[in-house]
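Mods, move this if it's the wrong board.
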Amino acid sequence: MSKKILIIEDEPDVKNFLEQLFQDEGYDTVTASDGLEGLEKLSEGKPDLITLDLQMPKDTGTAFYRKMHHNNDFKDIPVIVISGIAGRHLAVRQPVAVFDKPIDKEELMRKVKETIG
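Not the wrong board. Structure tokens:
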């Protein structure tokens, strides 16, 4: 059974890039365009990993993370922050990794495989 990655990203180009990258490596993907949709996707099925943009309309990545982290069923899911904003390393406590945009896809895949196999 393949591992599932939830991609929370509002930029269609970045979301499509990540989705294709992970699928090419054999992972199942689920996408959300903001934190609210991300929470809905969480309730539909627990992913093995989440990639999280921080600056999005409706509900920010930081707000999503706070809500997710308060739920015992989801708080242990590893999170990789992918964002172009300053101070992003402070927005999520103990992310697996923090990546700038544009994304170094080799480094990202190394970190994903290291985290969930």
